[in-house]
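=== RUN LOG ===
request id: a7f3
mode: sequence -> structure
chains: 1
length: 183
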Amino acid sequence: MRRDFYWIGILLLVLWLVKVVDATIPFDLQQYGLHPRRWYGLAGLVTMPLLHGSFGHLFSNSASLFVLLALLVATERSPWPLAGITHLFGAALLWLVGRDANHIGASGLVFGLIGLLVVRGFLKRELVAIGVAVLVGILFGGTLVSGIAPFRADNVSWDGHLCGFLGGAAAALVTDRGFRLRR
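=== RESULT ===
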C-alpha cells in the first residue's frame, strides 16, 4: 500500500510537469484534449487528464485527486486498475455523447472517483466502504452537484464531469468486488 501512495505523488508530479511545459513552450498542448466523436479526439482518452487550462484548474484537480486516490489506495487491494477502468469508462462515454468541444483536465477522473467510491460504498455494504462513501459525499457533494450543472460557463466541461461520474458508477458496478454481495 505504501508504494501506491508514491504513485499518487508521481501522477501529480507528471500533471504539474506537463502544465509547466505547456506554459513555457510556444506550442499549445491543450489542443490535444478529448474531442467527442472525432477520430483524432480519441487521443484525448489518454491526454485529457494531463492537460489543464490554468494553474488554478490544475491545483483544484490535484487537491481533489490526492484525497480521492488516497481513499482508493487505502481501501482497495488493486487501486490502479480500478482507477484506470473508471477513467476509461468516463472518457469513452464523454467521447460518445459529449458536446462538441475540446475537453481537458483531470476533472473527469475526479468525478469518476467520486462516483466509484460512493457507489462501491452502497454495493459493498461494509463499514469502511460505507464510511468512505459518506466522507466522499460530505467532502465532494457540493462539487458534484455544481459540477454537473449544465448551465455552467462554456469553458467548464460539465458533461465531462457527468460522464466521469457515470463512468465511476459503472466501474463500481462491473468490478467483481461490486457484485460480491449477491446472495
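=== NOTES ===
Residues 178-183 have pLDDT under 50 and may be disordered.
The longest helix spans residues 2-24.
=== END ===
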